[in-house]
């Protein structure tokens, strides 16, 4: 029996691995991308919007709407940290692409999310590849959003491993910890894919060579922009490969069987030196006292990934583009 493709909205801060994830989504018949919403993270929001429009032009998919997201955190904080040292000043490997012709739609990202979830209740999956501000705003905007949205797949958190911004925090959660806590406790169907899982999924220099030698349009494009990303990983992690954070989270939405999950309550630390820390309560103990995890909705947290299968899917779909 034919199942219709899952509708997804990618909330994104492109970003080199965001570009990979967006191209992957467009090459995955299991899903239909119904929109991109933009957020700060790898770059500021304005540039994220420009890059999202640019990537859709490269893909020949200017029919997909782009809604611009928040420029500040949920508590109105300015964006403190941009990962331009990871992705290049333009977010896409310093290739200086010409500006896109397209424009974002009138609605804000949060409005667009609320609207799409309302039109297709239970049928839309949001794949959140950056800080969670837009998703938290949608939750605040519409009390029914958590019920209407099918699933929220979050790339974020460092469950029981060191973070990648500092030992406590992973970058996307660190970008807006207050928003993250709102999303984790919203009661929506949330699946978190953290760096405890994505650090197992590595694209090697040999894989990059393979991409370079293929005729795939997306493969060719990515080979160029991956240069900056590879040199960052070598410097920061002393490794000759790159972590496939965003493509792994995207594939969790495409094929949930690639990962295994545990369920529990996740709270996010919003202040102090562990700001951005994600802590999962595994429900193994019943505590006598009420605490900040008591009576909160549960979420799923990824604990293992079939890394070879993820890398193979990424390679196959991008080379065949």
UniProtKB/TrEMBL annotation:
The keyword Hydrolase applies. Pfam families: IU_nuc_hydro. CDD domains: nuc_hydro_CaPnhB (cd02650). GO terms for cellular component: cytosol. GO terms for biological process: purine nucleoside catabolic process; ribonucleoside catabolic process. InterPro entries: Inosine/uridine_hydrolase_dom (IPR001910), IUNH (IPR023186), Ribo_hydro-like (IPR036452). Keywords: Cytoplasm, Glycosidase, Hydrolase. Its EC number is 3.2.2.2, 3.2.2.3. Gene3D superfamilies: Ribonucleoside hydrolase-like. It catalyses: xanthosine + H2O = D-ribose + xanthine; inosine + H2O = hypoxanthine + D-ribose; uridine + H2O = D-ribose + uracil. It is an enzyme of class 3 (hydrolase). Residues 8-311 form the Inosine/uridine-preferring nucleoside hydrolase domain. It comes from the Eukaryota. Signal peptide: none annotated. The keyword Cytoplasm applies. It is found in: Cytoplasm. GO terms for molecular function: inosine nucleosidase activity; protein heterodimerization activity; uridine nucleosidase activity. Belongs to the IUNH family. This is Inosine nucleosidase. It comes from Senna tora.
């Amino acid at each position: 029996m034919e199942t219709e493709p899952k509708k997804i909205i990618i909330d994104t801060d492109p970003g080199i691995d965001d570009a990979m994830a967006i191209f992957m989504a467009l090459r995955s018949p299991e899903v239909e991308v119904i929109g991109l919403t933009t957020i700060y993270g790898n770059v500021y929001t304005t540039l994220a919007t420009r890059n999202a429009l640019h990537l859709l032009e490269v893909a020949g998919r200017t029919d997909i709407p782009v809604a611009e997201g928040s420029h500040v955190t949920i508590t109105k904080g300015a964006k403190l940290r941009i990962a331009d040292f990871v992705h290049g000043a333009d977010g896409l490997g310093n290739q200086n692409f010409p500006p896109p012709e397209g424009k974002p739609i009138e609605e804000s990202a949060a409005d667009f999310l609320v609207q799409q979830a309302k039109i297709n209740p239970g049928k839309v999956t949001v794949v959140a590849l950056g800080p969670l501000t837009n998703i938290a705003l949608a939750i605040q905007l519409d009390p029914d959003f958590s019920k209407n949205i099918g699933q929220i797949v979050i790339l974020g958190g460092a469950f029981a491993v060191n973070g990648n911004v500092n030992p406590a925090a992973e970058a996307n959660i660190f970008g807006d910890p207050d928003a993250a806590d709102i999303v984790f406790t919203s009661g929506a169907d949330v699946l978190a894919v953290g760096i405890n899982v994505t650090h197992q999924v590595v694209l090697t220099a040999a894989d990059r060579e393979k991409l370079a030698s293929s005729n795939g349009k997306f493969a060719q494009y990515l080979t160029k922009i991956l240069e900056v990303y590879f040199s960052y990983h070598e410097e920061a992690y002393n490794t000759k490969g790159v972590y496939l954070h965003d493509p792994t989270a995207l594939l969790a939405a495409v094929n949930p069987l690639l990962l295994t999950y545990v369920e529990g309550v996740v709270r996010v630390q919003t202040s102090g030196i562990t700001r951005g820390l994600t802590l999962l309560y595994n429900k193994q103990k019943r505590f006598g006292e009420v605490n900040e995890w008591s009576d909160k909705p549960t979420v799923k947290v990824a604990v293992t990934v079939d890394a070879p299968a993820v890398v193979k899917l990424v390679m196959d779909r991008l080379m065949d583009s």
